[in-house]
Amino acid sequence: MDDAPANTAAATALPQAELDRLTDQLIEKLKSVFDPEIPVDIYELGLIYKVDVSDDKDVAIDMTLTAPGCPVAGEMPGWVRDAVLEISDIRSCTVELVFDPPWDPSRMSDEAKLQLNMF
Description:
By secondary structure, the chain is of the alpha+beta class. Helices cover about 35% and strands about 15% of the residues. Strands 1-2-3 form a three-stranded mixed beta sheet.
């Protein structure tokens, strides 16, 4: 009898292959959003801190900005949400701006550093 709740939960969980496919699509969409002041996408800049996908395909994203006073601070979460919602399987998306830990250039990918000649 104790196994029933676990079996029910496992039956409704996203299969790993589906989660992998959604992860690839999410990364692709996050890479389509750019910080207007820096010619690199927000994913490679390291502005995405966390992406959670629920079994119901609700996405919750924690992201930051290169600087708290960024002129697009009010708009960028909406750009991210709109990009993610282009994935037909996603039911909803919430984007939270967080500033802890503060962003710094060490969060950038090697690809971003190459694009900005920072090597």
